[in-house]
Amino acid sequence: MIVQLALRNITYRPWRSLLLFFGFGVGVAVMIVLLSIGEAMLSQARNEKLVGGGTITVLPEGLDVEVMKTGGIGGLFFSIDHASFLYRQVLASPRYNGEITAVAPQIEGRLLYVRTADGQEFPVHASGDIPAATKAVGAAPEVVAGRWENDASDRRWVAPTAFELRNEIDHFHLPSDSVANRETWAEWHYFNVLSPDKRRWAFISFIVGGDVTSTNWGGQIGITLREQDGATRRFATTLDRSRVRFSTTDANLVFGDSHVIVLPDGDYEVRAAAREESGARGKISVALRTHPAPYAYFPGVAMGSGGFVSGYTVPALRASATGSICVDGKCEQLNDAQSYHDHNWGVWRGVTWDWGAARAGQYTFLYGRVYPGDSSASIPPVLVYVVDSLGFRAVFRPKMISYVDGRTARTKSGLLWVPSRASFEDVRGDDTLRVEITVEDAIATDTRPRRDAKDGKGEAERGDPLGSEKARPYFIQMKGTARISGRLDGQPLSGTGTGFFETYR
């Protein structure tokens, strides 16, 4: 009876019946979709591979989140480069205390292999956390036995002392297996210091050169004294490897009676002695204590392809130096003088670069790029790194540096045109930066091997510690005034100060 009534109603009002059937079908479909979404959300909430805690998750650029969750091949080896630096200087920086309450670095579900004492190997999934940080973002696991708290390694990762930080980023290195011509390897500590009147300065280099994995290597101290628009005096001392001590775990470097040592408070003790070059009888001794400003450092970068390797870090981008520089028995005392320290390593024969570092009011900036000895390599963009009193501020990547060669520098071959001005600029989203450099003094060093040298090598210089033939053989060291302008985070950016700059001609 009910079926008959239903059929007669459909035939009596077919369009109305069709509309009702359609509405009922849509309703059922929507319900199915909603139930499916709910099931998916519940499944994801239970997914052991999802990182928990906090309100924002920071992932490596370009990483597909679905690949990370499902364990695809693209998620096997992802990492965040310089993660500890990003933690200390960006996410957990005092700059963002008002916006960020807690930050927790976490590694979830990484594939590792465990090898037992009897040689068996098992694949395992491993995770890593900083216990106190993970607790702070509300993602601490339930501990059923024992304790789960920070150890000494966790503390060093999160908040190293100044002493620990210097040794972490400023230690020495060994050439990798990819370096074919290890005799071209060189690594050095470099310091500069500027007199209070900004008319005199010193460049100090402690260089280890040659194949340090064999017996064919040694050390050399190179010191250049310069008076603006005046005389240049160069001092050098060469040491046999038996008198050189360097380490791949700390920043200390001993050259006989000279040394660079990291003190317990993180300052550098720099002591050096050398004799004047070119047959003169002059002597120099340096005794400085260099104090890096807090947060003002560049963590380091290493690049390489084929047999080329170039590494660079700046433990003291903004620093002050106290002590003395004595020449021929006459000493100049320095107190909180403007200073700087960096560290270079790699294959340097035939390599050139653009480089500069300067104070500009409350800001300090660093720029540079390296040209490998292979002339067919593409020209890399310039890296510009800006810090203030709270540390890292911004990174820019200008495509080029514009030089105006309006000065001359004297060389053994005559006068050489060198830069009188330089500038570069970049736009990164809403942020802009323009840097203008006015060169106040410049010296040129011929980095080609001295033909009168018994070993065929050139002078020990920061420009090419091994000496080599190159298309632009003159290493130009400049002192000048830098002016920066632009906008950062919607606020005007400006400052002026003194710095040192390098290029080749």
CATH class of the largest domain: Mainly Beta
Describe the main β-sheet briefly: 9 strands, antiparallel
- Number of distinct beta strands: 25
Tell me the radius of gyration: 31 Å
Describe the structure.
By secondary structure, the protein is α+β, with helices and mostly antiparallel strands. The protein has 4 domains: 2-45; 65-158, no CATH class; 174-347, AttH-like fold, CATH 2.40.370.10; 349-505, AttH-like fold (Beta Barrel). 16% of the residues lie in helices and 46% in strands. The protein has 7 helices and 25 strands. It has helices spanning 2-12, 14-45, 65-70, 83-91, 131-136, 152-158, 162-170, and strands at residues 106-115, 121-129, 185-194, 200-210, 217-227, 232-240, 244-245, 253-255, 258-262, 268-276, 283-292, 298-305, 308-327, 330-347, 352-360, 363-371, 383-388, 391-396, 402-404, 407-411, 414-418, 421-428, 431-446, 474-488, 491-504. The strands form 4 sheets. A 9-stranded antiparallel beta sheet has the order 18-17-16-15-25-24-23-22-19, with no helix packed on it. Helix 1 (2-12) crosses helix 2 (14-45). The longest helix has 32 residues, at 14-45.
Structure at a glance:
The protein has seven helices and 25 strands. The protein has helices spanning 2-12, 14-45, 65-70, 83-91, 131-136, 152-158, 162-170; strands at residues 106-115, 121-129, 185-194, 200-210, 217-227, 232-240, 244-245, 253-255, 258-262, 268-276, 283-292, 298-305, 308-327, 330-347, 352-360, 363-371, 383-388, 391-396, 402-404, 407-411, 414-418, 421-428, 431-446, 474-488, 491-504.
